[in-house]
Amino acid sequence: MSGGNNPASPGSIQLRAYLAARRSGQSTEAAASIAGFNAEEARLTDAAEARGELEHIDTSAPTAGHNSGEMPMNVAADQLRQYVERAERLIEERKGLNDDLKDVFAEAKSQGFDVPTIKWVIRERAVERQKREEQNALRETYAVQLGLAF
Q1: Which pLDDT value is given to residue 114?
Q2: Picking from 14-18, 92-96, 116-120, which range would have the lowest pLDDT averaged per residue?
Q3: What whole-number distance in Å separates Cα of residue 31 and Cα of residue 39?
Q4: Which region among 40-49, 93-102, 131-140 has the lowest average model confidence (pLDDT)?
Q5: How far is CA 124 from each of CA 105, 129, 130, 139, rounded to the nearest angstrom?
Q6: Per residue in 24-71, pLDDT tens?
Q7: Fewest Cβ atoms closer than 10 Å to its Cβ: which of 21, 91, 121, 146?
Q8: What is the DSSP string of 25-68?
Q9: Which of the 8 DSSP states describes residue 72?
Q10: Burial of 64 by CB count in 10 Å (0-12 exposed, 13-18 middle, 19+ buried)?
Q11: Distance between CA atoms of 113 and 125, rounded to whole angstroms?
Q12: Residues 81-115: b if buried by 16+ CB within 10 A, e if exposed
């Protein structure tokens, strides 16, 4: 484990994050995912830890040094939290839209319309006219070849 830009260099945020996860009982795969390690880096780090070469690394406060080019863990955690919260909001919006869509289809069905056919029409309208015509011609050709009435 050498210095430089290697994520597993002593004192790096990634190394401290990996060690903190492993020391707290996380699996190798989970810790590697947290730290952004590949399988080989995880294996080498585990081996060095088993030999006692990494005992001196403090995992209690993983922060970056001055001008290290690394992101402090609290900044990374804030960014992660923001992504998760944005995704959660979008999922909630999607649930609301899906509920609205179900209501539209239920209303159409109550008025006697065939919902699968409506869904087919929506899919067809999403395809460009030329492409749709090509697909329909090909379907007709296949149907004729198979003896299906068109």
Answers
A1: 98
A2: 14-18
A3: 10
A4: 40-49
A5: 17, 9, 11, 14
A6: 888 888 888 888 888 888 899 889 889 988 888 887 754 444 444 555
A7: 146
A8: T--HHHHHHHHT--HHHHHHHHHHHHTTTTTT---SS--PPTT-
A9: P
A10: middle
A11: 18
A12: eeeeeeeeeeeeeeeeeeeeeeeeeeeeeeeeeee
Report the pLDDT averaged over residues 80-84: 89
Encoded amino acid at 58, one letter: D
Phi, psi of 143 (to 5 degrees): -60, -45
Query: Which tokens go with 6?
Result: 């290697």
